[in-house]
Write a structure and sequence with these properties.
Distance between the termini: 56 Å
Helix content: 40-55%
Shape: globular
Number of helices: 19
Strand order of the largest sheet: 1-2-3-5-4-6-7-8-9
Structural class: alpha/beta
Strand content: 5-15%
Largest sheet: 9 strands, mixed
């Protein structure tokens, strides 16, 4: 016990000194400026920008499919280790089955037709052609739709929202709230043009998407996201808070002042940090939680340092790309997938829906620019000041998410937190896996915000 106390004391001194040197105790920073940018080819033209919004239909030439099938057939498969399951990544034997299904049973035409039942558009913002899916509800007489910007992450896409879109845009007898959805593709992902210049980070994307909403005529709107989408919506709330009616996140991460110190203390005395056992279990033991995160984030270090290197391989091999993405849908949906022969994929997903998301990356050649988003963000994210989010906010905490932030810590950053929901099931890809749960939570939050706005 004495050794524990001495250890904690030494750690306290070390952490406090490090925090002081890092400026944690400095005055709260001003929010980042809205700014402007140009990410197109060459210099920004002097002519007025083309702000037209053009309908877009997803379609590919037959030659692209012929090339895809040829590459799948010519894949050189490895041999997996005995009893390794998904602990070393996706098993080569499993990928043989994926390849067979992809060639003989998967129907892209059917998937494409489903995607095209939704309205898609492109518009040029800051030099880039931005793709977005726009889903309008059928309203009752006198009813108004609530605009909601939903932003995906990696390795997902706008396709994640095809299941939840009808749930949110359908008139609901239990609530007057019905949504008009705008689901853009992050620049460099699927049909949104990739930046031609270095530096396109989450702050720049936040500004681009705000400009998109303003161009569509929405001066105020709600925002929702997970993964990179969750990070981007916090940036939108920082640079234009007056535009945001409310923020809903299904992956709220915080970097609080003194958080390393709290983690150190809580590893020995968790009750000093959180009174609730449930909150304690979300964060402690910190070493065990960190080991789990490290086990699942090797990809992040590669993509945050040399994305183009691994991109050369993934952009050349559809089976390599599929393995890389399928692994995330395995363990990010349920970490127990590491101990299953199929990674647990068949339990939660269909190959049709996962291959469609993979096809969107493959057919657009967008895996490399999508990974560059890590390079543009990770280093700065680890050093950025602690900003408080002042707009009305809600968090949905899904049990199989990669990491969890207890409500007391969320409240320190999201100062107007109106709702924190512990979800009964679901993982990282919430809108894709549990659309009804997420839709209900979003509607509940927005209903509360709208009621508060109408209350004198």
């Amino acid at each position: 016990m004495i050794f524990k106390v001495i250890s904690v004391f030494v750690l306290l001194i070390a952490v406090i000194v490090a925090l002081m040197l890092g400026g944690v105790f400095d005055t709260a920073p001003e929010p980042p400026e809205y700014g402007d940018g140009w990410w197109g080819k060459g210099e920004k033209p002097n002519t007025p920008p083309d702000e037209s919004i053009v309908p877009f239909e997803i379609q590919f030439e037959q030659s692209v499919f012929n090339d895809l099938k040829s590459r799948i057939r010519n894949t050189r498969f490895g041999v997996g280790l005995e009893d390794s399951r998904f602990n070393y990544g996706v098993r080569p034997e499993y990928m043989r089955n994926v390849a067979k299904y992809w060639l003989s049973s998967y129907n892209w035409t059917k998937q494409q037709e489903e995607i095209n039942t939704f309205d898609h558009f492109k518009t040029n913002i800051e030099g880039l052609d931005i793709h977005f899916m726009h889903v309008k509800p059928t309203l009752k007489a006198g009813q108004k739709a609530v605009p909601l910007l939903m932003i995906h992450g990696w390795p997902g896409s706008f396709y994640e929202y095809l299941k939840i879109a009808p749930l949110l845009t359908k008139v609901n007898d239990q609530s007057d709230v019905v949504f008009e959805l705008i689901c853009p593709s992050i620049p460099g992902y699927t049909f949104s043009e990739a930046s031609h210049k270095k530096g396109l980070d989450a702050l720049a994307v936040a500004r681009i998407f705000d400009k998109l909403m303003k161009r569509l005529g929405f001066r105020q709107y709600y925002i929702q996201g997970g993964d990179w989408g969750a990070y981007i919506i916090t940036k939108i709330a920082l640079i234009t808070p007056s535009s945001i009616l409310g923020l809903h996140s299904n992956m709220a991460t915080t970097r609080l002042p003194l958080q390393p110190l709290f983690l150190m203390i809580g590893s020995y005395f968790p009750s000093l940090i959180f009174s609730s056992k449930e909150d304690q279990d979300k964060v402690f033991p910190a070493g065990e939680k960190m080991a789990h995160i490290m086990l699942e984030t090797g990809y992040m270090h590669i993509q945050a340092t040399k994305p183009d290197t691994v991109g050369s391989a993934l952009n050349n091999s559809p089976i390599g790309l599929a393995a890389y993405i399928l692994e995330k849908f395995s363990t990010w949906t349920d970490p127990k997938g590491r101990d299953m022969d199929d990674g647990g994929i068949d339990k939660y997903w269909t190959l049709d829906e996962l291959l469609t998301n993979i096809m969107l990356y493959w057919m657009t050649g967008s895996i490399t620019p999508s990974m560059r988003f890590y390079k543009e963000n990770i280093a700065n994210a680890l050093q950025e000041p602690f900003y408080k989010i002042n707009v009305p906010s809600a968090v949905a905490d899904f049990p199989m998410e990669l990491s969890h932030t207890p409500e007391p810590w969320v409240r320190k950053q999201y100062v107007d937190l109106m709702q924190y929901t512990i979800m009964p099931r679901g993982g990282h890809f919430a809108a894709f896996e549990e659309p009804q749960l997420l839709a209900d939570d979003i509607r509940k939050f927005v209903t509360a915000v709208e009621l508060r706005r109408k209350t004198p």
